[in-house]
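Case study B.
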Amino acid sequence: VRRPFEPHRAQQGSSSTRLELEEVYRAHAAFVWRAAVVLGVPDAARDDLVHDVFLVVARRLDEYDGRAAMTTWLFGIARGVARNLRRSAARHQRKLQAVPASTPPSSSHAEDPAELAERKRAVALVERFLDQLDPAHRAVFEFMEIEGMTAPEVARTLRVNANTVYTRLRTVRARFRRFVQRTHKGAIDA
Amino acid sequence: MRDDELDAMLAAYRRHTSLSPAREDRILVRLRHSVREAPVEASRSERRRADVPVRWIALGLAVAAALAVLWLEPALVGVEQRHADPDAASRVVADSDAREHVEGGVRKLGDATTSQALGVAPIEDAIEDAGQPAGEDAGDGGRDTEVERVRASERVAPKGVTRSRDRGAATSDDRPDTPAEALAAEAALLRRANARLSSGDAQRALIVLQDWEARFPHGSLHEEHAALRAIALCALGRLIQGRGEAKAFARRYVGSAHIERVRSACSEGGEKKPTDPNRPGQ
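Model:
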């Protein structure tokens, strides 16, 4: 039995292994967070997902041999953790069904109401659009357009061909444009 | 719709759904705490690496022990036998002769040609060859007498000498001493079953075959037993069961010399009425 932050290969200083994991965390926490979004994990459970994913990483970091991209490895772990979270959330939800819903906490940030409303509208619009996409297209769109990853990186992460990534991105971009136009037109007509 | 409008929307979404630095730090603190509080076991790959030499050593030891047992078993049995019986030495010589003779007979079973197998004779001859002890010449009429002799020799055999193959079913009283004697006993029973079948008494043949099953669940003449059983069942008119066993026999003993005989006994044309007047066909 060992602690994952402790040295386990050679007689390394404990700080070097600790840094190793923390480096991985610092470099890829945002990616894992985005993966949680892509995998449809609700906002309230994303902290848990990131925490659990890196807990797995802490245990299995020595298994990572660098043959696959780190993001590929992390995405695989995130997928498994998300599945587990969904299962436990479903159980939790069943337990909570009898409990009356509480009012959501109000935002404490002082923000311009007009800007806030505009931002909320844009976010709601994008979320609505992303919800229509199948997981494969959504992952490409989120990783490239939102996370700013390159096509080869996304291809490695999702284990698909780079050309497939480009094709999916073009398709989703066109659909997004049409979706926004339709929504605007509907709003104007209304 | 301009591209910059779309980009603005995506940027708003990005800000809204991104991991904030504060949240990132909070998760890291929680992660450190979890790791500190709950030490984890060594990873699977580490365990696997550690287990590999242990597994190989254990496997090596097991193989060595098995080989040692195989190597020592005949010697131990011989010593035990000689201690139990002063005439053991002479019997050991006779056993080895008998074993050679019996094994030659068993080989004949496999060598029987298909044309020979069409009749009753090949199984009978082969079983007779397998069961014939060296130096004895049993005539056609002396089969039952010979079976009795085999059984009598089993009864007088020294106790405490066991044979692992038949340990599950045989009692200490009717357990044969040596593989050669066991084979002779098996062959005697099957020969008797075959004789019953030839005389048209399939019911009794089946009883003898059941006796064989009880005494030799891992017997050497399993192929012959299965063939006779299928034939006996079909001869009794228990066609569904008989054909099922015939099929199983054909599947299990592909290329067996007895297949044709089994097939002809259980085919549509070979359908027979029950031979036992006391037992109606099923």
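The interface with chain B takes residues 1-5, 8, 22, 25, 29-30, 33-34, 37, 43, 46-47, 50-51, 54-55, 58-60, 62-63, 118-119, 122-123, 125-127, 145-146, 176-177, 180-181, 184 of chain A (CB under 8 Å). The remaining cases will be described in the next quarterly update.
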